[in-house]
Design brief:
Layout: H1 8-33, H2 43-57, H3 60-70, H4 79-95, H5 99-111, H6 116-132, H7 136-147, H8 157-172, H9 176-192, H10 196-212, H11 216-232, H12 236-253, H13 256-273, H14 276-293, H15 296-303, H16 306-312, H17 316-332, H18 336-435, H19 445-462, E1 466-473, H20 476-483, H21 485-503, E2 508-511, E3 516-522, H22 526-541, E4 554-560, H23 567-583, E5 589-591
Parallel strand pairs: 4-5
Antiparallel strand pairs: 1-3, 1-4, 2-3
Bound molecules: guanosine-5'-triphosphate.
């Protein structure tokens, strides 16, 4: 006889409940059991590990007995050990069906400063327990907080358990693809770190995920792999879950005898764990099969004891399905009043389930929305930080550029200043060259007569005197011829120096020809000029003359600027006087004739 049980959605969601509880418990227990190797660190540690191990392999009461024995010694425990103790106990409370107390214990633990691994453990266990007990907001909050923990994958088995929980939770709220994605990550992690227990848990969840989206072949494959891993780790709980889940798959596949054989193994196994929700789920699954086979008595026998467990754990979908089955049995037996009661109970349970399902999706969406919103906020903040960094970098570059420009500008100004100073120096040099005679550094011909003009104008204006002396070295050609031009040059320079010394700074002295000099004496008359000439002759002939110097004499022509006379006219007269001095035997001075 065909079953007309609850909707597929009801059945699927109901199945989740038991699986989730079992897997939660399994996950935490598995993690806690891991530090067996540290038993030698002390009796407390060893007993704590024993309690954790018992949580996997025995009914929860056995591990709780160990915890109760350890409780008086909690004061000597480390923070980490206390956290593990609390987590095992919280898990036991949940296994015993007291979700509220279990979750309160986890919340308390999360408020304390505990190692990161314990935080991850507590969040994973809390998320699972909250989701299983219909506290979806809290469940997804804890799940997302755990998933957001940095460096998650370094926690290996813990991370694998968390990802497998995420896999289950997302499948539960209608996101099976996301669930599969998390599941594959969890499988990879479990394989990578060779954790059989992790593999056992995640394969079971992946079996569930595939089953609810109708991929029975894949579901079966995951369940079978999971069963192998679970048997290896003596995990009675998950082994039992997988067995009755596989049996349900066989039923769906039409292998009813195979399914029954598996149920016969799974139910006693579940009963041995003492976990009421798991036992009730196994009974319901089996009852589906017996309903299909028309074994009404067996259906009643299986389902009736499960009703209270479903009601207590608010597994409304399962409860609805159970009442549906019992209602059908009652109809077939002609007990119509009883059937009506069951169908009414089914309707009520379905109503509860619809509310629950809506709440579940809403909770997921709220947390998901909140998370996405926060992610967007974080992304926005990151973007703002990036922009600020870019701006700061741009400002730094601008400041650098400004400095470079300033330095470059200063260097340019300096180079220009140097170049200008050099140009000015050169200009002054060339200017001086253009006015002086390079050999003697006396005024050259042009400059001398310019200055003479100016001096003449000045003395005329001031009503003072001005005399001029033309001096020409005697027989200079012979000096050159006898001693060479270099000596001749030296004679010219020496003569110039003596001229300057004798006539003093007020006199204008110029070299106006090869060996011919002109001296203008402002404010001086002929007698003073003659006196100086005499001094000069003595100096050249006497004291100043070195023994190696060739004998040098000069002939002089002296003239005084007459009233109304131009400097040129004065010069001509002085020239004539010089000519006379030369002709009169040289080495002498002649006065120019007055006009
Ligand atoms: N070493 C040297 N010789 C110069 C320079 N300028 C002109 N002389 C020489 O001066 C000599 C001038 O010779 P002259 O004009 O014959 O005159 P002098 O030999 O002095 O004879 P008198 O003037 O008649 O006494 C020439 O031999 C020129 O070569 C010069 O700058 N350096």
């Amino acid at each position: 006889m065909a079953s007309s049980g609850p909707t597929t959605s009801d059945a699927v969601s109901g199945r989740c409940l038991i699986i989730a509880i079992l897997v939660t418990l399994l996950g935490v227990t598995g993690t806690l059991a891991a530090p067996w190797a540290r038993a030698s660190q002390g009796d407390f540690e060893a007993r704590l590990n024993e309690a954790a191990e018992l949580n996997i392999t025995a009914p929860w009461r056995e591990s709780q007995a160990v915890l109760d024995e350890l409780r008086p010694r909690l004061a000597e425990a480390t923070i980490e050990q206390r956290a593990r103790f609390e987590l095992i106990e919280a898990r036991n409370l949940i296994l015993a069906g007291d979700f509220e107390a279990g979750l309160a214990r986890i919340d308390q633990l999360l408020e304390q400063p505990i190692p990161t691994a314990q935080v991850l453990r507590a969040r994973t266990l809390g998320a699972n327990a909250a989701i299983v007990s219909r506290r979806y907001n809290r469940g997804f909050e804890l799940l997302n907080a755990a998933l957001a923990m940095p460096g998650l994958e370094q926690y290996e088995q813990l991370a694998s358990e968390l990802l497998s929980l995420a896999s289950y939770a997302y499948a539960l709220v209608g996101q099976p693809e996301l669930g599969l994605e998390y599941g594959y990550r969890a499988i990879d992690l479990a394989r990578e770190h060779d954790t059989e227990r992790g593999l056992c848990v995640v394969q079971q969840r992946m079996g569930f995920n595939n089953k609810i989206i109708g991929r029975y072949e894949q579901a079966r494959h995951h369940y079978e792999s999971g069963l192998e891993a679970c048997e290896d780790t003596n995990d009675e709980l998950v082994s039992g879950i997988i067995q009755y889940s596989l049996a349900d798959l066989l039923r769906l596949d039409g292998d009813l005898e195979g399914a029954r054989a598996l149920f016969e193994q799974a139910l006693p196994r579940m009963e041995a764990t003492g976990f009421p929700n798991g036992i009730a789920e196994a009974r319901l699954y089996w009852a589906r099969l017996e309903n299909e086979l028309g074994n009404d008595e067996k259906v009643t026998e299986l389902v009736t004891p499960a009703l209270s467990a479903f009601t207590e754990s608010q597994a409304w979908d399962y409860l609805a399905e159970a009442h549906q089955l019992l209602g059908e049995v009652a109809i077939r037996a002609g007990r119509h009043a009883e059937a009506l009661e069951h169908f009414e109970a089914r309707l009520a349970a379905n109503q509860e389930f619809q509310d629950l399902d809506r709440n579940r999706r809403l909770a997921y969406l709220e947390v998901e929305f909140d998370t996405r919103f926060k992610e967007q906020e974080i992304e926005l903040l990151r973007e703002q930080t990036r922009v600020a960094q870019l701006e700061a970098e741009t400002q730094r570059q601008n400041a650098r550029l400004r400095w470079i420009s300033v330095i470059f500008g200063l260097l340019l100004i300096l180079a220009l200043a140097l170049w200008l100073a050099r140009a000015l120096r050169e200009r002054r040099h060339f200017h001086r060259l253009s006015q002086t005679d390079g050999l003697t550094e006396l005024y050259n011909h042009t400059r001398f007569f310019e200055l003479l003009e100016e001096a003449a104008a000045r003395v005329r204006r001031d009503g003072k005197e001005l005399s001029i002396v033309l001096a020409d070295i005697d027989h200079f050609k012979q000096v050159n011829d006898r001693f060479g031009h270099l000596v001749g040059d030296e004679v010219l320079r020496h003569t110039s120096r003596v001229l300057k010394e004798v006539f003093g700074p007020s006199a204008l002295i110029g070299r106006i020809g090869g060996e011919e000099f002109a001296i203008a004496l402002p404010d001086a008359g002929l007698s003073e000029a003659a006196e100086r000439v005499e001094q000069l002759r003595k100096r050249l002939a006497g004291a100043d003359r070195r023994r190696t110097d060739p004998p040098v004499t000069l002939s002089f022509g002296l003239a005084r600027l007459e009233t109304g006379e131009s400097p040129e006219e004065m010069r001509i007269r002085a020239d004539e006087a010089l000519y006379r001095a030369k002709n009169s035997g040289r080495n002498r001075a002649e006065f120019a004739q007055s006009t």
